[in-house]
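I am still getting used to backbone structure tokens and would like to learn alongside you. Label the sequence line and the structure token line clearly, so we can match residues to local backbone shapes. Go ahead whenever you are ready, and we will take it from there:
>
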Amino acid sequence: MPAEQLLPADGPDRPRSLAFSTEGVAAANRLELWSAYNARALIDLDIRTMDDSPLAATEVNLHFAAVRLARVRGSAQVIERSESYIRKHPMDLIGVFFALKGEAFFYYPGGFEALRPGQAVIYDADQPFMRGFHRGVEEMVLTVPRGTYLGLSGGRPLRRPVVVDFHEPGPANRHMRALARLVHGALAACDRDGADGQRPGAATDGVEHSSIELLRLLLAGRGRGAVEAYLAAARCFIGDHLADPGLCPAQIAAAVGISERHLARVFTEAGEPPGAYVLRRRLERAAALLADPGEGTTPIAAIAARCGFSSQAYFARAFRARFGTTPREARRDRGAAVPVRPA
């Protein structure tokens, strides 16, 4: 992989894809190139390594019109934006940092946070901070211009960091979890396309608008989000609870913070009622398990139960109606393609 790679946007509404890796770069040049790349692609940072080991780092970026996404992996390092550094390199950005692996320290004026995997921190890039990753870093990042943030927050500036859990479903973090899943899906699609030398495709459609609306829900509270935000949050909750045979529209609506009637409208506008969406997701998960050689000895009844079906007979009928084959035949013909729609 070249040190830096850029694929132009495929059409006016598609993001640009960028990537960087220190692999194959002389050790003496890695930190300088890594810093320069981040300044262009994400946030201008004062970066230092924690020991004498050569820096190892990779980054994948998606640039939409107002939103930028990144997945960052790297060895132990400290990143900082001091007052003097900010004066020289203002960014006018708000960042959301999703910690995936490794613990990190985060110092800011008047405070300290110890961040663990599964936590996201929202912070103003033009407020001084220092973040350190003594065991390396793996995180996702979303940035928006400060003006966009102020529009979403009702004009309230971000004076202190806001830390939100996203690794567990629940009322306090359902929208952040949905945002994390949205960002992860877009970057994963970028990885798949980039591996084939392709520009980001249809999998990134709607990501910018949905992420902005989810941020609006996070910042402005219940009842102010657009259809896309509630849809993303509901789909995230459904994905976490597919194994629950009692999953129902009332439970989904309560988790997302809207009425059942509103939930039905949200899904209908997306072209699929909530009950049909849940059934489709369950059947697609079952099809994936039946095609997995590692699940070859798992009883079909157990697979049905893992996908939320309390009746094996109903599972078999629904599976045949959707895919034109029985679960047993699907397992036997493991190589056959099963049509799967994006979530």
Observations:
- The two ends are 30 Å apart (CA to CA).
- Residues 174-195 form the longest helix (22 residues).
- Residues 316 and 326 are 6 Å apart (CA to CA).
- Residues 8-12, 194-198 have pLDDT under 50 and may be disordered.
